[in-house]
Amino acid sequence: MSGYIVGRFLQIPITLGIILIISFILIQAAPGDPVAALAGDYVTREYRERIIRHYGLDQSLWKQGLRYFQNVLQGDFGDSYYFKASVAQVIAERLPQTLLLVIPSVIFSSLIGIPLGFIAAKSAHPILSSGIPLWATLLNSLPIFWLAYLLILTFSVSLEWFPTKGMVNVRLMNTGIYYFLDVLHHLALPLLTMVLSQLAQILLLTRARLREEIKKPYFRTALSKGLSQQKATTHHALPNAMLPVITVIGSRFGFLITGAILTETVFAWPGLGRLMILAIEVRDYPLVLGIIFMLSIIVMVLNLLTDVAYSVLDPRIDFAGNE
User: What is d(CA 252, CA 85) in angstroms, rounded to the nearest whole number?
Assistant: First the structure.
């Protein structure tokens, strides 16, 4: 396992390099004037030329790219045009907010979706065996931004239980435990949106896979040896059913980041997703590249952790390539 993990870590810099090259080329080809983002539309010609020379925008594309990648290797992602601060500093201020939204959403959607899928697969009651999958199918068909607006209309506009935007109420100026509770209050709807958007697919897949496993010969063999239906399901069928579920959870991390961007935008949650939308709007190219770099690292690390979890559930897997 250790050799496999080392190999995967060695792949990360190569993948990041390819992602950055493609992103750099696409951003340079995008319409818009970066000088206007830096200095505004109404500047003198002399000041405009000074900005161009200072940032090397008069150089060829490959020279700009080479200089950028040399700086990245030294940990320098440049300065944000909009915030007038280093890209690393701006990202570091927003990253915890995104992780606060993404990581709990994966945990809660798995902790809720897997048991509900188990209940839907094993229950003989029609409300549970058919009602839960029907609810999950309807939920799975909703785009995440529609789901977000439905939650806002229900819990913010109608019931007035939760705020509609932001991370804290700046007018209250809370500190200590009150600040923590205020953050949780604002986090509730964005987190619920993320959880519900992932929960449905996990639930449906768990139900489908578990139903397949309990029809296989090994399950009937376990029952014939005296194991109860409950023990045979939890000790044999469920672990095997979890393997494709974990694979799907890992493969959806890219979609999870996309969902986080949309969710942060709807709820004005101050994370990397909302920051990226702002950076694109104001043509802050160094900040866009820095955010892409950071989000790519998050996705690749989470995928690596998924592979490790997969091997724990199925020790038969040989990371050298054999089973």
Answer: 33
